[in-house]
Design goal:
- It is built from 8 helices and 11 strands.
- The protein is α+β, with helices and mostly antiparallel strands.
- The strands form 2 sheets. Strands 5, 6, 7, 8, 9, 10 and 11 form a 7-stranded mixed β-sheet that branches.
- A hairpin with a 4-residue loop joins strand 3 and strand 4.
- The longest helix has 55 residues.
- The chain is rod-shaped and about 165 Å long.
- The two termini are 45 Å apart.
- The relative contact order is 0.06.
Length: 426
């Protein structure tokens, strides 16, 4: 990236210098030549006036005085008369490259004044060298600024890449680095928030594993002891029956402990739910799925109330909607409509299509694992319902024909004290 920044800046600077410097050099060259010609013409007119005045006063011309008055000039003066008088002042340039201007009067005075053209061209070259030097200085300044700017941009990006790599390796410590660039600071803030969430998740997973190992050890030990008693008392039916009933009690206790641990884990996930703009998630999903529906010659439409907010996680709710849209695309038909509404206790998002619907024999167990009516894997709706439940909501089949699924979420204004959240299977 740094090399690209330097290259692009240098290319832009070179183009700017060429677009400005080349026309400037041409204009300066012409101005110098034109100025020299105008100066020479003015001297010729002034000199012819002086010669005419000297003729009127009958004063002879003094070549030495004219040479002092017009230094570096080669002057030729012709005066009409008998004989023709010719006056030459100065010496012709050795190079033979002359810039000449002349002037004359009606009384027979003709003046030609010349100067060395090489001197004018040297002046032009000096000005052009000055322009080139300024252009090189401008390029050097542009490159220096590009180097500084590229360092300012690439060093934070490298730092952010290291932070992201560290997050991927499991080190979820927030960096708290800020770089003075709004866009990069925003990325750093997002990474810090992600690090905090990952750290929280890892902590909860460790706590869950610790609690599970501790809580399951006692029921498993008791169950093992009862089974050993059953094996040892295989010849005594009454003892076997008594120990079998005790083993069932231990198994039920083990199931209760597992349910309690899962409920605790679900409550931890609920604590992560935050107010989410329903419109943003739905619009994002519709935009992502619209091209696929168009390829299938089907219509995807978003309707309902706008501006709704609900308690959820953006990723979890987005995955639920994506699963429902994929299900409608693969197993449904016709137009698919996503509708958002709000009630007293829930924000409801419905996904409905115009297909044949769901068969009666699989409708009651449509959310069970490996249950599918169209040759699918049978996992999409199961995972979608689990994600909805993890956010404190639920996913239901509200109409079989045509198929309509509804996601019920807690409204963002709900503080959780007045309504009981019914969660689906996690």
């Amino acid at each position: 990236m740094r090399r690209r920044l330097l290259t692009s800046t240098l290319v832009v600077a070179v183009i700017a210098v060429l677009l400005l410097g080349v026309p400037l050099g041409v204009v300066v060259s012409r101005l110098i030549v034109d100025e020299a010609a105008q100066e020479l013409g003015a001297e010729a007119k002034r000199l012819v006036g002086e010669v005419e005045y000297a003729r009127v006063q009958e004063t002879p011309l003094d070549p030495q005085q004219l040479e002092q008055k017009y230094p570096g000039r080669y002057i030729q003066i012709w005066e009409r008369g008998t004989p023709l008088r010719v006056t030459v002042v100065g010496t012709a340039p050795a190079s033979g490259h002359l810039m000449t201007e002349d002037a004359q009067t009606n009384t027979g005075v003709y003046v030609r004044i010349s100067r060395d053209r090489d001197q004018v061209e040297r002046d032009v070259r000096a000005r052009l060298l000055l322009i080139v030097a300024l252009a090189v200085a401008a390029l050097a300044v542009a490159v220096s600024l590009a180097v500084v700017q590229s360092r300012r941009l690439t060093l934070p990006l490298r730092d952010l890449a290291k932070i992201a790599e560290r997050l991927g390796s499991g080190d979820a410590r927030p960096s708290k680095h800020r770089y003075g660039i709004p866009e990069l600071d925003r990325v750093a803030q997002v990474l810090d928030r992600s690090a905090a969430r990952i750290s929280d998740l890892l902590t909860r997973e460790r706590e869950f594993a610790t609690d599970a190992s501790h809580q399951l050890r006692t029921p498993l030990t008791g169950l093992t002891m009862r089974l050993e008693e059953i094996v040892a008392s295989a010849g005594e039916p009454e003892v076997v029956r008594e120990e079998g009933e005790a083993a069932i009690v231990q198994a039920e206790r083990l199931t209760a402990v597992i349910d309690e641990l899962l409920a605790a884990a679900r409550r931890q996930r609920h604590a992560q739910a935050e107010p989410v703009c329903i419109d943003e998630v739905l619009i994002q999903q519709v935009r992502e799925w619209e091209p696929v529906f168009k390829d299938a010659h089907r219509e995807l439409r978003l309707e309902g109330a706008r501006g709704l907010k609900a308690l959820a996680t953006t990723g979890g709710f987005g995955q639920v909607v994506a699963s429902l849209l994929e299900n409608s695309l693969r197993h449904g038909g016709g137009r698919v409509t996503v509708t958002s509404t709000s009630g007293d206790n829930y924000v409801v998002v419905e996904v409905a299509d115009e297909g044949p619907g769901i068969a009666d024999e699989i409708a009651p167990k449509i959310f069970e694992r490996n249950v599918s009516g169209g040759g699918g894997t049978g996992l999409g709706l199961t995972l979608a319902r689990a994600l909805a439940a993890a956010d404190g909501g639920r996913l239901e089949l509200v109409r079989r024909r045509p198929a309509t699924f509804a996601v019920f979420l807690r409204p963002a204004e709900d503080d959780g004290r007045g309504n009981r959240v019914v969660s689906g299977p996690a």
